[in-house]
Each structure stands twice: as structure tokens, then as C-alpha cells.
Design brief:
The protein has 175 residues and is α/β, with parallel strands linked by helices. The chain contains 6 helices and 6 strands, in the order βββαβααβααβα.
């Protein structure tokens, strides 16, 4: 059985998908909810909307706390195996999980850690991460700039800003 819940956040509508035991996917605001749920339902015919499922309640609470800067470490259980059986992809995602809140890493760094020279393959695996934000793929940068992000560059910038708020405000921010 697979469950989902959609919540409005300060950055838009997020949809969370879980099994009984773990989060398996998160839809970011830039993706159409109906398309996302249609893709999920092709994999699992028993897709049930359930607001009060314990895993969905926890992920919702943690994402909201993260987005206002109050949460730095997620505790909700996650499961990669639902959407990938690729050992390489799962290893990339596990490597991304090691990148702490407020830190950044490059595709090259991940490739080096995994003992491969396939930077583009790492980029592709990063882009197909089914559990963004919790698996902080927004923290993965290209060597020459921001790189891509499944939720779009503007959302990537906002997420990085949440983790590294500017200490000095401009005078115009107070008016």
C-alpha cells in the first residue's frame, strides 16, 4: 500500500508519498501534482490519499520546520528501493545524504568518493533523486556554478538560502 499527502508550504505545494514504513518520494512545487500522482499510480495501483498517516505527518512537519530554518537533520525514515533498483543511483543518493545542512559538494566530489570518473552519471542520478530536500540534492553543485535541480534553479537558490541566510540585511529589507 502506498499513501500520499499534499501540503501548502511557504514555497508552494509539496506532495509526500510513503509506504507504511518510509517516505519514498517528494514532489516539489514546480512539478504538476496530477502528473506526479499519475506517474506514481503507474507503479502502484493502490495509491491512497491519507492526511493522518504517521509517516506523512512526520515528513510534513519536518519539511515545514526545515523551510522556516528550524530543522537541520531529518529523522523521517526513507526508502530508495521503491523507485530504483540501481545500485549506482542509490550509492549516489547515500553519498548526498552525508552532506550536512549548510554545506555543499560538487558532482566531481561525489564521483571521487564513489571511485568513478562518471561526473555526468552522478549528475543524472542526482537529478533523478525521488526524495529531494531530505536527500539534499540541492546541495550538489557543478564545478563551475549551481548546476541543475529537479525543482528548478530558483528553488535550488531558495533552499541554499534557507541553509545559509545572509547575516547582514540591506536597509531596504526593513521597509
Amino acid at each position: 500500500m502506498i499513501y500520499y499527502r499534499s501540503d501548502n508550504t511557504k514555497l508552494g505545494l509539496f506532495t509526500y508519498v510513503s509506504t507504511d514504513d518510509a517516505v519514498v518520494a517528494i514532489k516539489l512545487p514546480s512539478e504538476d501534482t496530477n502528473n506526479f500522482l499519475e506517474r506514481i499510480s503507474r507503479l502502484e495501483s493502490d495509491l491512497i490519499e491519507k492526511k493522518n498517516h504517521s509517516i506523512l505527518e512526520l515528513v510534513s512537519k519536518e519539511i515545514h520546520s526545515y523551510l522556516i530554518g528550524d530543522l537541520k537533520v531529518f529523522t523521517v525514515p526513507i526508502d530508495f528501493s521503491y523507485f530504483s533498483d540501481s545500485e549506482f543511483q542509490i550509492n549516489v543518493w547515500k553519498e548526498i545524504l552525508k552532506v550536512l545542512y549548510g554545506k555543499k559538494i560538487t558532482y566531481k566530489d561525489i564521483s571521487t568518493a564513489l571511485g568513478t570518473k562518471g561526473y555526468q552519471a552522478v549528475g543524472s542520478a542526482t537529478g533523478s533523486n525521488p526524495i529531494p530536500i531530505i536527500v539534499g540534492c540541492h546541495r550538489v553543485l557543478a564545478s563551475d556554478g549551481l548546476g541543475g535541480f529537479s525543482g528548478g534553479i530558483e528553488l535550488k537558490k531558495k533552499l541554499l538560502e534557507i541553509e545559509n541566510p545572509t547575516k547582514i540585511k540591506k536597509i531596504s529589507d526593513f521597509y
